[in-house]
Design goal:
two-stranded antiparallel ribbon
């Protein structure tokens, strides 16, 4: 998927669309990934995006995510 500078998902591939089934466009990244506001992963995502914006160097993070069918999986964001 593609994320804007203000951390909103603006484009996704078919797999992401099927796995997360967003209810509307331009959701914040954490909300798109079905991560609750109070979850520490929200800050990890925010820091990741800010670091990408600041340094423009390749980076990656691994997070446990949950599909719309409640299956957990390990996600790699780059």
């Amino acid at each position: 998927f593609v994320v804007t500078a203000d951390h909103r998902v603006c484009a996704v591939n078919e797999a992401a669309q099927n796995w997360f089934q967003p209810r509307r466009n331009l959701l914040p990244l954490a909300q798109f990934l079905r991560i609750p506001e109070y979850d520490e992963r929200t800050q990890v995502l925010d820091d990741f995006v800010e670091e990408l914006k600041a340094n423009r160097q390749p980076r990656e993070i691994r997070l446990t995510l949950q599909r719309v069918d409640d299956q957990n999986f390990a996600g790699l964001l780059m």
